[in-house]
Design a protein that fits this description.
Structural class of chain A: mainly alpha
Largest interface: A-B, 34 and 33 residues
Number of domains of chain A: 1
Shape of chain A: elongated
Radius of gyration of chain B: 25 Å
Oligomer: heterodimer
Number of strands of chain A: 0
Number of domains of chain B: 3
Number of helices of chain B: 15
Number of helices of chain A: 7
């Protein structure tokens, strides 16, 4: 296993990300990762806060038009995240905080699918108050994304921060 | 022109007129608006408070950069002959409080502008709160300006003037009663008074400025910097909630929703900005040297100011409100919406690149 990770870290792409010094390498990929976060979490948080009762005048149904943008941002971050992981595989995968981040993201994605299916799937959503179940999903979504952001930021500080 | 902008001391001297002179004009207009019950003038003066608060951010940071420019990278480097080191720190501490009050004034001015459009009647606390905060800001900013004058204008610094007058009294005494004062000076050069004061400062134990104490609090705790960074990311996401949903509506994405509905999202974005202003200022006060001579930070502040202008457009120009349910937004508001997205994407770019293009870690 360790040999495989070292091989990934030694690949041309990983070395370029780590060592090239180009603004397109580590800085650029991390920048794309940050934009992806801003778009995805930004829009999802807006929807969650709407479900929790802020912005009462805003109808929920039309906001589903933002889902394609949310999922494009998600896949952007899955790809850039994988590249960043490949560049630093041995340290990141040995860091328990990385597992925490992934767990939060898996939960957040499942939760988001549930919101799209149950809350947006209900044709009556904008005609009656949100159910406690819908509000629970919104709270879970905010908690999971907050957890993912926190664990992500802390990757630079806890465990063995490594070279990146 | 370029030389003015590359010398941060000069930039600070230009900007410091905005929170003082421009703010007093805005305050007078605001009081007139309250006396005459003029809604238009009230909106105009609230918008001025908001914009001046935005410029105050740049004024504060350029002040720190100005000191760094005078000293170079070495804190022990000699300052210009008429600059008193202690005066810089007294001014900086006053500026910290004045900037905090000005930030609160700007935030609640914006909220009052927003409420003026979103609710039928503004809550009764809104305008009085802005008045109290504006008066407090004016007092704090005046004190800051007064202390700022002492940095280079030694002729108005009380301790320098006191020493100069003491010398003049000796000369006077010697003229009236020759031989009464042994070793009386022939005349009283100002430089001697300045040197006396500077020497007296040197013999006192150095007092740590409040700004430096706050900065040491930020960098002295291992959990502090990561926590602030995480909050900065959370604030950024909330800011983007508003920037994306409101502006994409104006650009034609969810046209069934009227502008009046997405308008309710604006305080979420402003809250995100407030979180990032507070955490950002704490980073700045923590390690100013990362930002003082950092060109990317310079640009970040420029884009934040443009963001303030952009927000003011939406507060003062009613263009976007013509976008009712299913109605496309007018061209003017589309341009403002596209600028908003560009500006905040640029702010994020500059923030991210601080360590990669600039010299932050």
């Amino acid at each position: 296993m360790m040999a495989l990770l070292q091989q990934i870290e030694g690949s041309g792409l990983s070395q370029w990300v780590r060592q090239s010094g180009s603004l397109w390498a580590f800085p650029g990929i991390l920048l794309a990762h940050t934009y992806g976060m801003a778009i995805m979490v930004g829009i999802i948080a807006g929807i969650d806060l709407k479900i929790l009762g802020l912005v009462p005048a805003l109808p929920l149904t039309p906001l589903q038009k933002f889902f394609p943008l949310v999922w494009v941002a998600f896949w952007l971050n899955a790809i850039t995240g994988t590249i960043l992981l490949a560049a630093d595989a041995t340290t990141k995968l040995a860091n328990p905080d990385f597992g925490v981040k992934m767990a939060f993201i898996v939960l957040a994605v499942i939760n988001q699918r549930l919101i799209q299916k149950r809350v947006f799937g209900d044709p009556e959503i904008d005609r009656r108050p949100f159910t406690p179940g819908a509000k629970m999903l919104a709270v879970m979504s905010l908690v999971c994304w907050l957890g993912a952001i926190t664990a992500g930021r802390l990757l630079a500080y806890v465990g063995n921060p490594g070279g990146l | 022109m370029i030389e003015i902008f590359s010398n941060t001391s000069h930039v600070h001297l230009l900007l410091n007129h905005v929170p003082t002179t421009a703010f007093s004009v805005a305050l007078v207009l605001f009081v007139i608006a309250l006396v005459n019950r003029s809604e238009t003038l009230k909106k105009a003066s609230l918008a001025m408070f908001f914009l001046i608060a935005a410029v105050t951010i740049a004024t504060y940071t350029s002040g720190s950069a100005a000191e760094a420019w005078l000293r170079g990278t070495n804190a022990m480097t000699e300052l210009p002959p008429n600059v008193l080191s202690d005066a810089i720190h007294e001014h900086e501490d006053a500026a910290l409080w004045a900037t905090i009050l000005m930030g609160l004034t700007g935030f609640f001015s914006w909220l009052s502008l927003w409420q003026g459009r979103s609710v039928k009647r503004r809550p009764s606390w809104s305008v009085p709160l802005v008045l109290v905060l504006a008066l407090a800001s004016f007092a704090a900013m005046s004190r800051t300006a007064y202390l700022g004058g002492h940095i280079a204008h030694v002729e108005i610094r009380p301790d320098v003037v006191a020493r100069h007058k003491a010398c003049l009294a000796l000369v006077d005494e010697e003229v009236k009663h020759p031989g009464s004062v042994p070793n009386a000076p022939q005349n009283c050069p100002w430089q001697t008074a300045v040197d006396d004061v500077a020497r007296a400062q040197g013999t006192q134990p150095a007092v740590k400025s409040t700004a430096r104490e706050l900065g040491d609090f930020v960098i002295g705790r291992t959990w502090m910097w990561p926590t602030l960074e995480t909050l900065h990311f959370v604030g950024l996401c909330l800011l983007f909630t508003t920037v994306l949903i409101v502006n994409l509506r104006l650009l034609g994405m969810i046209t069934v929703v009227p502008y009046s509905a997405v308008y309710q999202l604006l305080p979420i974005g402003m809250l995100g900005f407030a979180v990032n202003l507070i955490t950002g200022m704490l980073f700045f006060v923590g390690i100013p040297s990362q930002y003082n001579a950092n060109p990317v930070f310079y640009w970040k502040i420029v884009f934040v100011l443009l963001g303030g202008l952009n927000t003011t457009y939406f507060m003062l120009v009613d263009d976007a409100w013509r976008a009712g349910p299913g109605i496309d937004a007018p061209a003017g508001s589309k341009l403002a919406a596209a600028s908003a997205i560009f500006i905040w994407v640029a702010v994020l770019y500059c923030g991210h690149m601080l360590p990669f293009i600039g010299n932050a870690f």
